[in-house]
Amino acid sequence: MVGIYKMKTVNGDYPPVLSAYEKILSYNHIPFVRLEASQTDFWDKVKQLDLFILRWSQVDSDRQIAHDLLPVIEGKLGIKCYPDQNTCWHYDDKIKQYLLLKPLGYPMVESYIFWDRKKALAWADRADYPVVFKLRGGAGSQNVILVKNCGQARKLVKRMFGPGIYPEKFVNLNSVRFKYFSLYRELHHLAGNIYRRGKGLDASPFWQVHKNYALFQKFLLNNTFDTRITIIGDRAFAFRRITRKNDFRASGSGMIDYDLSQVDIRCVKIAFEVSQALKFQSMAYDFLFDPDNQPQFCEVSYTFLSRAIYNCSGYFDRNLSWHEGHYWPEHLHLIDALGLPDLKAPEMDY
Q1: 218 burial class (0-12, 13-18, 19+ CB within 10 angstroms)?
Q2: What is the C-alpha to C-alpha distance for residues 6 and 14, in angstroms, rounded to an integer?
Q3: Phi and psi at residue 274, to the nearest 5°
Q4: What integer pLDDT is reported at residue 181 of this predicted model?
Q5: What global pTM score does this model have?
Q6: Residue 144 burial (C-beta neighbours within 10 Å; 0-12, 13-18, 19+)
Q7: Residue 117 falls within a domain, yes or no?
Q8: Which of 26, 17, 92, 29 is nearest to 53 (CA)?
Q9: Residues 276 and 195 occupy one common structural domain
Q10: Which structural domain, as residue segments, surrounds residue 229?
Q11: Are 69 and 54 spatial neighbours (Cβ–Cβ below 8 Å)?
Q12: What is the CA angle 227-20-193, rounded to 5?
């Protein structure tokens, strides 16, 4: 029996990614049940499960639910979860990721993290610019800007140790949303918020203010793409993401290059090493290259766009042997979590 937690999109819909798990389970005649913690028999049902799936996103309400439930269900009840705690406790938190991976010697891009205003300002006075400023959470290059001088850095530090920043209100001329301004997109965004408010839904899914820390990252010059390596169990999917025109950010650009001849195999080896050592069920790594052409990854994420993985022409195994084919990650998650290598995949498109 598989339990699937009923997460919702910002429009209040059932996410297609959860429907994908259900389609695969139904196709293989494996029973499942949708669950919500508000159900009076929630814990009775949870205790009967062989697998509990809580595929949470970076929005604050999802984080709240995941952090409340997963440690209990996996850690105290001993029920297998996807994602498990090894895989997701640091999700969408660049500070936790850095503190976990850098001390273990893995090649993460150098970061500068402060929880003290005076020390952050002192660092800003002597930093080598440009540097990258990030909020600890955000996907698709949201909440990421290039800081070109001390004045900008000090302004950001004072803001972070003052009123703080709400991610949705992080308006900067160097941000992705406003640098590539589209009247149609902005009107569509406004209309969506009006619709959600009219339905009584949450129009602001990022409601937690970021404050009392500062996170800067070394800027690696001349990277016109990043290399995304996604490890699912013993499989590595690889592609490059091209940076936007006149920009330094590749995440969220939508410009994906699936030419494997352009992928540095060192990135695949490093990603396998990290995932195996830390027992990650599923993890995507974003690699850049330093001035000596050495690969370094800047962040990781257990969840990702499923279609991008399916569009890969195959995967590498741990021996770097190639396996041709197209695979939905949800199918692979279930194979690994249920221990069913012969689990069949239905025709899907989402």
Answers
A1: middle
A2: 7
A3: -65, -50
A4: 47
A5: 0.88
A6: buried
A7: yes
A8: 17
A9: no
A10: 225-338
A11: yes
A12: 80
> Residue 130: is the preceding peptide bond cis (ω within 30°)?
yes
Tracing tokens 């920043």 back to the chain, one arrives at: 165
Indicate the number of domains in the chain.
3
Separation of alpha carbons 348 and 140, rounded Å: 25
Say whether the peptide bond before residue 83 is cis (omega within 30 degrees of 0): yes
Q: What mean pLDDT is predicted for residues 136-162?
A: 87
Structure tokens at 228: 């995304």
Token look-up 């995949």 returns: 345
Edge-to-edge, what's the strand order for the sheet holding 81-82? 32-35, 2-5, 51-53, 81-82
Tokens of 118: 């005076």
Q: pLDDT digit string (tens) for 299-342?
A: 999 999 999 999 999 999 999 999 999 999 999 999 999 999 99
Question: Higher model confidence: residue 338 or residue 170?
Answer: 338
CATH code for the domain in which residue 329 is found: 3.30.470.20
Q: Predicted confidence band at 176 (pLDDT cuts at 50, 70, 90)?
A: very low
Q: What's the CA gap between 42 and 72, in Å, rounded?
A: 13
Q: Per DSSP, what are the bridge partners of residue 111?
A: 217
Query: Strands 322-324, 314-316: parallel, antiparallel or unpaired by DSSP?
Result: antiparallel
